[in-house]
Amino acid sequence: MNSILSFVKISAFKTGLGCLVFFWIPVMAISQNIPKKYIAYHVSDSITIDGEGIETAWQNADWTDDFIDIEGEKIPKFQTHVKMLWDENYLYFYAELKESHIWADIEERDAVIFYNNDFEIFMDPDGDTQSYMEFEMNALNTVWDLLLVKAYREGGHAVDSWDIKGIKTAVKINGSLNDPTNEDISWVVEIAMPWEVLTENSISGKIPKNEFWRINFSRVNWDFELKDGKYSRKKDESGKFLPEYNWVWSPQGVINMHEPEHWGYVYFSDKSPGQLDTFQIPDGEFIRWKMYEIYRKQKAFKSETGSFARNLQQIDSERLEVKGRILAPSIEFHRAGWNVIIKSPFSQKTLIINQAGNFSILK
Which of 27, 162, 167, 335 is the most buried (most CB within 10 A)? Predict the structure, then answer.
């Protein structure tokens, strides 16, 4: 969803799996909401950031799946999709947002851009839901770039002073901007983000060649009203703004973009656009998703009872089923909180998630 002013809805579910003959063991089934994936190819030729997208590399790059409502249920009124490329200096984005009335009035950098219709990018290089980046942009080419060192849901605050230095952005309007006398077609954004800045927030500090990052895209869209020929967000009869629409690439399942474990997977292939590469989400990631389900259940349990569950049976999480494997997580409490621990049957490594949602791997 929109940036820091998010409304979180917590939901949980459980299923049962018959085991042996005499009793049932609760097992958390794999969620049907598997994150999207995309292959970003390497480009050798230069890319001009002008919103045109006429380079051969862009023409050969694939579009993502069309955006869907943030909860993954409704088809948006307007189509949105994105392309990505990369080279040794930049990570490139090219997004097309269909829109019948294109308008914007925010011109100050690092203002709350999502009070206009906007395009948003979220990136978590290490997939630990911490130290992630957010970028927003409107049709006036006004941007807001921010860093969350600590997850927002754990009380983290946006670092507005953080900038993607050297970023290049462009907007192309297929129609007219802020003109209510006609209907428009779309607006296109093209962006080049320097790796030098983005990799500062990854553990490796390196360009993820033939590796993946957790990334998602969001589009905030408002119903509008006209007054004296000017666009603004529409209000109801009581004078309150009508709620915005939140359309995303990889569905979150909740109205909250600040659950990075739901973001998509972008794999950075060293092959060129037009060549064929493949990417499968690693088996260990399926375990990671289930561990975040335990984390959310723990948060919900504390909200309901005032304390965390002391054992995983209390939140029906003592068994996990992941890709046909039955896993038995354990929970340990210590002075600083708690950890949930699982040994991966795929990598034989120990996976840990703590009370702050920090994910780590003991090698």
Answer: 27
Secondary structure (3-state) at 349: coil
**Tokens (6 digits) for 169:** 């952005």
Residues contacting residue 348 through CB under 8 Å, at least 6 positions apart: none
The pair of structure tokens assigned to 138 is 């409107």
Provide the H-helix boundaries in 37-112.
56-60
144-168 b/e (C-beta count within 10 Å ≥ 16 → b): bbbbbebbbbeebebeeebebeebb
Separation CA 161–CA 115 (nearest Å): 20
Residue with tokens 């940036």: 3
DSSP letters, 193-236, are EEHHHHGGGSSS-S--BT-EEEEEEEEEE--EEEETTEEEE-B-
| Angle, CA of 288, 88 and 143, to the nearest 5° | 75
211: nearest Cα among 144, 157, 140, 285: 285
Residue 299, H or E segment = helix 283-305
Q: In this predicted model, what pLDDT tens digit does every residue of 263-277 receive, in sequence order? A: 999 999 999 999 999
Span 282-333, pLDDT tens digits: 999 999 999 999 999 999 999 999 999 999 999 999 999 999 999 999 999 9
Pick the closest to residue 36 from 210, 219, 252 (CA basis).
252
pTM: 0.89
Q: What is the number of other CB atoms lying within 10 angstroms of the CB of residue 335? A: 4
How far is residue 162's CA from residue 181's CA, in Å, rounded to a whole number?
39
Angle among Cα 207, 211, 217 to the nearest 5 degrees reads 85
